[in-house]
Every structure is written in C-alpha cells, then in structure tokens.
Amino acid sequence: MGIISFIGFTALVAIIAYVSTRSMKDDSSDDYFLGGRSLTAPVIAGSLLLTNLSTEQIVGLNGQAYTEGLLVMAWETLAAIAMVVTALFLLPRYLKGGLTTVPQFLQLRYDKATKTITSALFLSGYVIVLLPIVLYSGAVAFSAMFDLPAMLNLSKTGALWAAVWGIGIIGSIYAVFGGLKAVAVSDTINAIGLLIGGILIPVFGLMAIGDGSIGEGLNVLVREAPEKFDSIGGPAASVPFSTIFTGMMLVQLFYWGTNQAIIQRALGAKNLAEGQKGLMLGGFIKILGPLIVVLPGIIAFQMFGDSLEVPDEAYPRLVREVLPSAWMGFFAAVLFGAILSSFNSALNSSVTLFGIDIYKEYIKQDASDREVVRAGKAFGVVLALLAMFIAPAIANAPEGLFGYLQEVNGCYSIPILTIIVVGYLTKRVPAIAAKVGILSGVILYSISQFILQPRMARAALVEAQQAGITDPAALELAQKTAYPHFLHVMAILFVANVIIMLIIGKFRPRKEPFVLEHTDQVDITPWRFVTPVGIGILVIVIGVYIYFA
Question: 232 and 248, same structural domain?
C-alpha cells in the first residue's frame, strides 16, 4: 500500500506539472527561465517554501531541536521578516528593471565584470556545495527513514548511489527540460503535501506521548522538558540570541532577497502585486515552520531521551515510531518532492545564470533566445551529472566536511549582499568599489573562519586542559566561546565592507548618478495591503519570541 501511494502521488505531481507547462515554448528565455512572467501568489509562495524546505532543514533542524530545543526556530521565524523586507524594498526594484537574474542588476548598477564575478560566485556555491549536498543529505535521509537497503536488497552504499541518481535524474528532468514553471508547479503541489505530512508527524507524536491526546502531549512536553521551550539559549548555543541582531538577519536577507535560487520565483511574478502577495503568504507560513522542523525534535527528545548518539537520527526515528504504515507511502512521496525541489531549484537557477550571464555575454553575444535556452539546458545536464557523481563521495569524506561545506557559503553570501545593498542605497559608488568589496569579503571571511577560528579554538582547548579542566562540556564551551560566532563575524565584515565601499565612493565617485529605468516588463503597482500585512507579520514574530523568552 505504501509503495502504491508513493508512486501514485509522485506520478500525479509529474502529470500536473506536464499539463501545466506543455503549451510553453522553450524558444523564449522569459518563458523558460521565468515561467513566462506568469506566476501567481500561491505558486510563488509554494515554490519559495519548498525550495527552502528540504531534508537539510527537516532532519537537521529537528536534530538541533532534539539537543537544544526551541531556540533553533530563529532559522525559520526570522525568515518571515526577511521576506517582508524583500517584498517591500527589493522586489519592486527587481521588477522595475525587468531582471531575470540578480547579477543583471549589478551590471546595470556597476559594470559587466561585477555581474560576471557575482554569477561565478553563485555558480561556484551551487556546484561545489549546494547541489552535491542536497543530493547526499536527501539520499541519506530517505535511505535511513524508509530502509532502502532492505527494500531494494542493496548494500548501504548501493542504496545511497541509487537514491542519489534517482533524485538527480528526476530533478534534472523538471529543472532542465521543464524550466522554472515546471519546477514552480511541482513545488506548489509538493508544498501542500509536505505541509500536511509534516504537521502529521508532531500530531501523531504528541498523541503518542499524551495517551491519544494532543493537548495532554503538549502538557507533558512543557512539564517534563521546560528547558526545551526557551527561545534565548546560552552562550554555547548554535544560535545565540545576540546573533538575531547581527548576522542572522543579514543571512536571511541574502537568502530570501538576493539568492538566485530563491528570488527567481518572485522574479517570475505576473506583476508586483502577485509577487508581494506570494512573499507575504510565504512569510506567514514560515512563522508556522517550527511545527514541522523544530517541534518533532523536542518530541523525539521526550520519547527517546538522550539515547540517540547522532542527533540527526531523531526525526527519521520519530517518523518510524509514530507514523501509521498507511501514511508512510504518502509521506515518502512528499519528502521525495522536498528533496527534489531543493535540487531542481538550484539546478534551474544555475542554468539561468549560465545562459543569461555567461553564454549570452561571453560565448555567443548574438545568440537567439532559443540558443541561450539550449545552451543552458546542456550546461544543466553536465552540472547534474557532476553533482550525482560527487554526492556519494561525501560519504567517504573526513568527519565534519558537511558542516565545513555549509560554512563555505559565507564566503560569497555577505560580499554579494554588501554590493547589492550599497548599490541600491547609493547612486555614485563606482564599480571598482564593488570589486574591492567582493574581494575583501571573500578573503577576510576565509581568513577568519578557516584560519583564525580553528587556531583560537585549539588554543582555548589547550589552555583549559592546562588549567585542569576535564569535563567534556566545559572543554567544548571553552572552544565555542574562544572566537566570535560566525554570524557575528558576518555582521562585522558586512559593516567593514560597506565602509570600504563608501570611502572609495567618496574619493572616486561615478561621473553620473545611477538611475534605475523602468522597463515595463510587468506592472509594478504594489499590493495595497503589503505594508499592513508586513507589519502584522513583524508583530507576530516579535510576539512569538516574547512569549517563549
């Protein structure tokens, strides 16, 4: 029964996506890369959420919640504020300029070289980090949760390869051959399924610990593990409360406002009002995200105690324990869809960046839209194959490499955000300032996190041991507090890079002030309720933090 429901739901998504996009032609870059600029609010919201929500968050954040509790909700709830800022300030400017990619704005504001450097940074991050990690983490979670080695009668390694290639091939078909609209439509359907399936896990979990009562289950959690419902946390927390006011908001703003894999959905909006409504709807749902990516981890702690050696096992084990077998196939299908979404969204954005910003600009400047799309598709196929070959190799990498690769994202996120913010807020800062800002951001962050931080942590460990400290928790605390949290480092470097760019702009300003022209690609009349709804979302987020403080 589970296999039938899995195949049935997966096939349904594919059929609906095909029917929705079969009339689209691939000889128009707008059609292929932006869904014909026809995306509506529900499609934008669904695609945004499922692009973001994958096994990395579902399994990873629940694993952190298992050990640390509610404080990790910052990654979810604060995203709502970033989406509001994007809807109010960034999206109107993107659509006014008729942009297909974020780096296109950088060409308009600075020069072609700045755009190329930024596109190369995005592509490097997707190819080296994001695509292989999405495939690997998705394959590992799927294999562990549904026991693929036994189901397929394969070794653990064989099942991993099978899952990686299954996800990769199906995701590539959506992303490379269907374009953004196929990705967005399939994401929307899967988002509905994931919300239903994701909420069922804590529901069944609360019923399991509350003798059939959801309310009693909540009472048990609050009564027996009150420390798990503290939104502040201590100095050794993975997300210290102070980071909310520094690097956390910068990371969120980069991710939701400038990351091509995310913002491309809003760039495909039929008009500004639909784009803003889509972002606001997504922001409101994001506030409810902890029900799916945090609460199950706390429930797992109540059920299993501290018996799990690997925190990331919390969510897969909880699913196996509480989800009725009749639901397993459906949940497998929506989880498969979530994994696919992150992969095919990043791949589609890579294809877009290559086709628009690299192929059209440097390889064949007189290429027609059809040629640009075909070149992007070919690049996407190569990229997908590389990711599928690289992903299983992560299993043999040194311990901690996965986290290391995730941290690498900071090398390009803050520099890119810096030059975009300065580009929008100033009119005379020149192109050379943007290049210096990118270069200094990448170099300084790399030195900080991969040279200074490890040295300081080792020195703190030696000092603590020499002082006679032997408690593992105390030694770990000494290492974690020996150097500023990486989110604080991001904020410091962001401010430093902004100052550097402004100083350059003061002494070497542009000859003419920058003016963003309206291209009339779409109607940029704002949604009349965007401001009050945005304020409402902000008030809810603050209220949640005050309540759980």
Answer: yes
Q: Within this chain, do residues 163 and 182 fall inside the same structural domain, yes or no?
A: yes
Cβ(100)–Cβ(376) below 8 Å:
no
The answer as to whether 122 is a domain residue is: yes
Q: Please give the DSSP secondary-structure letter assigned to residue 239.
A: S
Tokens 């990686």, residue located: 164
* 498: three-class secondary structure by DSSP: helix
Percent of the chain with pLDDT over 90: 26
Using CA atoms, how far apart are residues 283 and 61, in angstroms rounded to an integer? 18
Token pair 């292929």: residue? 32
**Beta carbons within 8 Å of 359's beta carbon, 6+ residues apart:** 367, 372, 375, 376, 379
Give the three-state DSSP class for 206: helix
pLDDT digits (tens, 9 = 90+) for 400-418: 444 555 667 788 888 999 9
Task: Between 172 and 159, name the one with better pLDDT.
Answer: 159
pLDDT digits (tens, 9 = 90+) for 216-255: 999 999 898 888 888 887 767 778 888 888 888 998 999 8
My answer on whether 368 and 410 are in the same domain is no
Q: Report CA-CA distances (Å) from 366 to 17, 97, 361, 383, 543.
A: 32, 22, 9, 24, 54
Question: Same structural domain for residues 315 and 422?
Answer: no
Are 303 and 445 part of one and the same domain?
Answer: no
**What span, in angstroms and rounded, lies between the C-alpha atoms of 397 and 376?**
31
Residue 492 domain boundaries: 400-517
